[in-house]
Amino acid sequence: xxxxxxxxxTRPECAEHPSAPVVARCVSCHRLLCSxxxxxxxxxxxxxxxxxxxxxxxxxxxxxxxxxxxxxxxxAPHGYQPPPADWRYGGPPQHPPPPGYHPxxxxxxxxxxxxxxxxxxxxxAPWGVGEAAIIFAIAYVAASAISFFVYQVLKNTFTxxxxxxxxxxxxxxxxxxFLLAGTFYSVKVRHRSTLTALGLKLDGLGKGIGLGxxxxxxxxxxxxxxxxxxxxxxxxxxxxxVSKSVNKIASGGVNAGLIALxxxxxxxxxxxxxxxxxxxxxxxxxxxxMNRQPAMVLNGLLxxxxxxxxxxxxxxxxxxxxxxxxxxRNRTLGGSITGHALYNGLVLLLSAVFQVF
Length: 357
What we know:
53% helix; elongated
């Protein structure tokens, strides 16, 4: 096939359409052709009369389909006319012309085998997993540094128990403040998306809360069973500051104000802030790049790893997986926040009041 001439060329004009620029030459009679006269068959340029003389049936519809004619399948009888839906552009594979396609140019075929692009499950979440990891790292380092200096002040001002409870609350507030600030900056400023992309919406909130209770209770039972088994195998799990503070509540000597502060931290702040980041922000980034099950498993593992507690890793991974399932079902954070708050509240109740663990 000869190289098409660019539109707007000053070369001789088409014989049938003098005002139209020439884009090709018939390989049989060498007549100059415009885009309306040019027909492509077997990857070669023809005029209508030469193509008809070779026994290829043409139709007026070809003039309105960017100058292309359908190709008969191998072994078709002389004069075979395929249906309009079987248009081919110089040979397989079949595909429609792209947006902005000019009829004067030959569109290259799609290479085979063709692998379609992955479906975007969360279209409002263009951010990546690496971006979420950077936000978490900055928030954690900044909160750890600030909390270290604050604790030096608290332990010299309050008793050990009071300083421990105040440190849990203050360090959580600082960490979540940095975490949410980075998340909202990424969503609203850097990617110009909306908060609904994080699952922060009222539509379906009631159903999500109900789903959080319905799935949260069996999820709590599964996670606690795993934690109980691990505790029996490796021993007591009071390795982090939160577990030690809960045990102090069980042993008595902690005033109601400090207990309320711990409840607010574990049952209110943690579920809301952690679900916004891990389920609302991190999970869509994973889901847009992999299938549902791998995304849910990886999110649960990252959620557990972010707590930096080895013994509680498996129960938190189970919890993170289940919260992803709730969010995937409802696409609002109301369900996962409810399930998370239910889990933390029941753990606190069983540990501090009934001394199950």
